[in-house]
Amino acid sequence: MGLKNLDTPSLILDRKVLEANTRRMTSRLEDRGVRFRPHMKTAKSIDVARMAIAGNFGGVMVSTLKEAEYLADNGISDITYGVTVLPDKLPRIAALVKRGIKIGVILDQVAFAREISRQAVNLGIVLDVLIELDSGEKRAGVFAESPELLEIGRALAELPGTRLEGVLTHAGHSYQSRTIEDIRRVAEEERMVAVTAATRLRAIGLPVPVVSVGSTPTATHGVNFDGLTEVRCGVYMFGDVMQSEIHSCEPSDIALSVLATVIGHRPQFNTALIDAGALALSKDRSTAAPGLAEDIGFGMVMDMSCRQRIPGVTVGHVYQEHGLLVSEGPFPYHLLPVGSKVRVLPNHACMTAAMYDHYYVVAGDNDQHIVSWPRINGW
Amino acid sequence: MGLKNLDTPSLILDRKVLEANTRRMTSRLEDRGVRFRPHMKTAKSIDVARMAIAGNFGGVMVSTLKEAEYLADNGISDITYGVTVLPDKLPRIAALVKRGIKIGVILDQVAFAREISRQAVNLGIVLDVLIELDSGEKRAGVFAESPELLEIGRALAELPGTRLEGVLTHAGHSYQSRTIEDIRRVAEEERMVAVTAATRLRAIGLPVPVVSVGSTPTATHGVNFDGLTEVRCGVYMFGDVMQSEIHSCEPSDIALSVLATVIGHRPQFNTALIDAGALALSKDRSTAAPGLAEDIGFGMVMDMSCRQRIPGVTVGHVYQEHGLLVSEGPFPYHLLPVGSKVRVLPNHACMTAAMYDHYYVVAGDNDQHIVSWPRINGW
Could you tell me which residue ranges the D-serine dehydratase-like domain spans (chains A, B) (predicted)? Predict the structure, then answer.
């Protein structure tokens, strides 16, 4: 069964590109002497996780407890949960800890530290906690120079039920970068914030075994990793058009695409339709951000081999199950006959992948042995 | 277990509002003498389907074959599949037909009619086909006045394996309306296109038992239903902020919301964080369309009872698992303490619901008997 026999829309993962992406990041960070903790928020798949941890120490990051539970069920035993831990979530976390899974959680408020401590004691666990730092994204975290940092550090070290494991930051604002030089500047900010916070905590006698940073752009282009113990990132595995436009990857490094069928021609309007719409592609419009090379609409339209772009054609609009292909010049209907298939590269791999419960994994164009890898969604 | 004990993010469905919405549309269309075929693309739930067909003839519309298979497995036996049927999909459709399910499919190209005929014969079925019409949306369909209409009609009537069931159109451009008068104008266009096409087909001796139209705005406000046999719509069940802004429903008719927890305050930036981001809310930005009353960002932020809006606060930005609450004036932190819960009304119910595999169904604020209804996703 080849690509042309798959039902559409389907989510396609190119195994060779995926392997090259995971190997490249693993080897880059190994060369720089930092542990690499791949983030599973994009892939949410044990098969991809195994590939990502190969050659690394085996730990992963997750964005939901469901990911943590799923990966733990499938043999991953060192997991950092990357969203401010709510006291309500402690019972699920304690269940994992009691199964022998090492779980790290993050927080940025002393009130939560106290609540977590109380709940952890009630549940009979000691929880490893990292203090989340704001390295310029302005989303979550405390500032490295703030009094709150030391207050939270002392609370975690002194309270029962918690153990201060270290500090962690994510320079999500690296996505606003437009050049590699920009990314390198953000990477150095991210590093400096983490190292400064660790130094301040150590200066008051607290142990800080983990100093963790990461985002795909900064992990890809960061130059200096001094003082860091760990790097994390996730979308590098698959890449996407946004990441290629901000120079985190080459267009040929994009491993994820949506297979769709051309279901209609409308020459009166210079358009065509595919059977991949808002649910198959997501409504992510990351490439519409200012300063990027090109706004690709709702996805970049490639031929079925995914080697050639269909010139001038973009997904200009999406309906729930229809994608409207538009063209600035005369529509190249001869390249896209009704019934033919295309591959659509996503704006943002995390959002597009989340619309599917499995990947079709292909090795090359004429792969007759396509396999299906499950993925999970939800919380 | 009440709302305050649910894990967040969760998808909440208000049973009373849902029941009122389904009863209102059923009774409106019954009064106008047309059959009502609820569209299950928004809800994708057998429990909601049963409520929607109550008082109607029992048929539904679906947007994916997975919906058709799921609903058939749960006792629905009359289903129209509302995306151009691809010949590749015939085996799955034939399996349903052979189980005794009445399946209607749509197409707008004579080449597909011939392919469908060939495949249907091979599979040993006779398939009911509706001709899709373009009533002004410019997405799919043939024009009512076009020669293609008659060509497709003749092909479907004459070829083996197909039966011409009628004509169908969806005035999706009603979503561009800004007043009830606009919607009524679109509804009349939608009706006229369907009736014109039916008249032309009948004039050449072809039977047209089904003349079907529908969209939530036109079904809600259409005045004249003469010549129509069937109306279809789906988002009316749940409503959403976009529908309320184009006057398809009142804000109090919105049955769907996302329950989220406030996970951080950032007074330095006049912001707060909730644990519902791009995956929990979707990236739909329908209310950003020109001419609408208000752009609500990624969702309208309500208190936990969903009765009061948090004044001045919107979801200004979404990250994968974080929503950034912003405020034009000073942020009302006293209304949203860290750890408190909010309900977020969606821009677009179809997109937000698609991020979840179940609903928590509540009857009133202090419901201690919240039940879970499964829903499906995918293709």
Answer: 255-363
Q: Select from B10, B64, B271 the Cβ nearest to the Cβ of A321.
A: B64
Q: What's the rounded Cα separation, in Å, for the pair B286 and B243? A: 9
For each of the domains in chain B, give its residue range(s) and CATH number, in order of start. 3-10+255-374 (2.40.37.20), 32-238 (3.20.20.10)
* Distance between CA atoms of residues B240 and B120, nearest Å: 39
| Distance of alpha carbon B132 from alpha carbon B84, whole angstroms | 8
CB pairs < 8 Å spanning A and B: 136
Report CB contact under 8 Å: A64, B271.
no
d(CA B295, CA B316): 10
Q: What is the ipTM of this complex?
A: 0.96
Nearest-angstrom CA–CA distance, A118 and B69 = 48
The label of the residue with tokens 């919405």 reads: B21
Query: Which residues are paired to A79 by β-bridges?
Result: A60, A103
Q: A249 to each of A173, A195, A217, A259, B39, how far by Cα in Å?
A: 17, 27, 9, 21, 42
- Distance of alpha carbon A262 from the chain centroid: 30
Give the position of tokens 């666990």.
A125
Q: Peptide bond preceding A9: is omega within 30 degrees of 0, i.e. cis?
A: yes
User: Rounded distance, CA A279 to CA A295, Å?
Assistant: 20
On average, the pLDDT of chain A sits at 97
The per-residue DSSP string of A263-280 comes to EEEEGGGTEEEES--HHH
pLDDT value of position A4: 87
User: What is the secondary structure of A21-46 as a DSSP string?
Assistant: HHHHHHHHHHHTT-EEEEBTTTT--H
Contact A184, A174 (CB under 8 A): no
Check if B263 contacts A (Cβ < 8 Å).
yes
The CA distances from residue A42 to A52, A72, A353, B319, B321, in Å, are 12, 17, 7, 13, 12
8 Å CB contact between B191 and B227: yes
Least Cα distance to B310 among B280, B330, B339 occurs for B330
pLDDT score recorded for residue B368: 81
Residue B364 has pLDDT above 80, yes or no: no
What is the spatial distance between Cα B206 and Cα B204, in angstroms, rounded to a whole number?
6
Q: Does B140 touch chain A (CB under 8 A)?
A: yes
Phi, psi of B76 (to 5 degrees): -85, 130
- Whether the pLDDT of residue B219 is over 80: the answer is yes
Pick from B70, B149, B82: nearest CA to B109: B149
Backbone dihedral angles phi then psi of residue A369, each to the nearest 5 degrees: -125, 50
Distance from CA of A284 to the nearest CA of B (A): 6
Q: Return d(Cα B106, Cα B129) in angstroms, integer.
A: 6
Contacts of A339 in chain B (CB under 8 A): 86-87, 115
CA A301, CA B120: separation in Å to the nearest integer? 31
d(CA A302, CA A311): 9
Neighbours of A16 (CB within 10 A): 11
Type of residue found at B354: A
Split at pLDDT 50, 70, 90, the class of A365 is low
Residue of A99, A126, A213, A119 lying closest to A166 (CA atoms): A213
Q: Which two tokens stand for residue B304?
A: 């936990």
Q: Does the beta-carbon distance from A278 to B89 stay under 8 Å?
A: no
What average pLDDT does this structure show over B263-274? 97
Q: Looking at the DSSP assignment, which residues form a beta bridge with residue B266?
A: B271
How far apart are alpha carbons B241 and B295 in whole angstroms? 10
Residue A106 phi/psi, 5-degree rounding, is -125, 150
Phi, psi (rounded to 5 degrees) for B361: -100, 120
| CA distance readout (Å), A279 to A261, A351, B30, B99, B351 | 15, 10, 32, 28, 7
Percent of chain A at pLDDT exceeding 90:
97
